[in-house]
Amino acid sequence: MRVLAAMSGGVDSAVAAARAVEAGHDVVGVHLALSAKPGTLRTGARGCCTIEDAHDARRAADILGIPFYVWDFAERFTEEVVETFVGEYAAGRTPNPCVTCNEKIKFEALLDKAMALGFDAVCTGHYARLEVVDGRPQLRRSADEGKDQSYVLASLRPEQLRHAMFPLGGSRKSDVRAEAAERGLAVAEKPDSHDICFIPDGDTRKFLESRLGESPGDLVDAETGAVLGRHTGVHGFTVGQRKGLGIDKPAPDGRPRYVLSLEPVSGTVKVGSANRLEVTRIDGERPIWPSGCPLEGPTECVVQVRAHGGTARAVAEAADGEVTVRLREPLSGVAPGQVAVLYRDEGEAGDLVLGSARIAATA
Fold first, then answer.
1. Is 11 assigned a ligand-binding role in the annotation?
2. Where is the tRNA-specific 2-thiouridylase MnmA-like C-terminal domain (predicted)?
3. What is the Cα–Cα distance from 147 to 144, expressed in whole angstroms?
């Protein structure tokens, strides 16, 4: 099988490519240039997709003895990921750019080009398991619970998963690093990137202000309606946020305040106590069913609303292009714009991805 290995310059994608080669596939490595002006060096785990990363990917491909190319996807990445990210924050929502990147770049733009060039599959270093049962793809959690990335892949459609390979799904990260060292890959001990790749300094508020400017508004107590202060833009906040609110006086009960809701039209940021963050219902829009099987009637499941954490048992129901999720126990800090991923209910945590939807509202 002809396989295009997406090589980020990190240890995971390098080992995934090595395993594809070892499995006997005809493998070609490709590094995606996602920035028109990439930094020359990263700082520890800050950022990715730098010139240094491209060099690391090329060195890994050389050791594996496979052809290697750099493809310029900077314009597409800016349009699909960066501008979407900025626009969602301006609208008072909290997006996950990694979900968007996987959906629109790695498994749409990249996969489309790979298929046009005659490749059969795209191989990545994601930690998720992929099986085919009765001709249908099934996306499952990784064997390494701490590294599981099924959440950020749950927006992929069946036709995309049919041409995807995740060789690391059954492995633990420590074993992957050990394997990289045994193979002589210099990236064996390279730090993982934990930040939004296009905000390498980690300062999301500063990045958004540089794009959106200032749009002052009021910080309002959700219970009393009292104005507690001013802010420079709703894009500087997200539901559940506690720090950086800019409120001088404490709450009457002395407890911390949290962001409860954002109103971009009026510029109002409502704040209140932690208990007001709890929700028991999630309304989702634009559902995607990775296996091609929509929910049939009320379905017991586990819902996850953040890439790491934020899970609860629930009952989900789909109708008319929307999903209603009723939680069996409340969740806190659930923000519109996030993605709700539904897993088959198997007790404490689900395993099989049933579907995903963008969170439109909560109650």
1. yes
2. 285-359
3. 5
Last residue of a domain, one of 174, 189, 204: 189
Residues annotated as catalytic are: 101, 197
Q: Give the domain range for residue 69.
A: 2-189
- Give the pLDDT confidence of 8-60 residue by residue, as tens digits: 999 999 999 999 999 999 999 999 999 876 654 455 555 567 788 999 999 99
154 with 142, same domain?
Answer: yes
Single pTM value for the model: 0.94
End-to-end CA distance of the chain: 48
Ligand-binding annotation for 8, yes or no, is yes
Ligand-binding site membership of 12 (annotated) = yes
Residue 206 lies in a domain: no
Q: How far apart are CA 20 and CA 247, in angstroms?
A: 54
Cα 151 to Cα 240, 267, 343: the distances in Å are 20, 31, 10
* Whether residues 23 and 144 fall in one domain: yes
Is position 125 annotated in a ligand binding site? yes
Angle between helices 173-182 and 11-22 (to 10 degrees): 70
Per the domain annotation, does 56 fall within a domain? yes
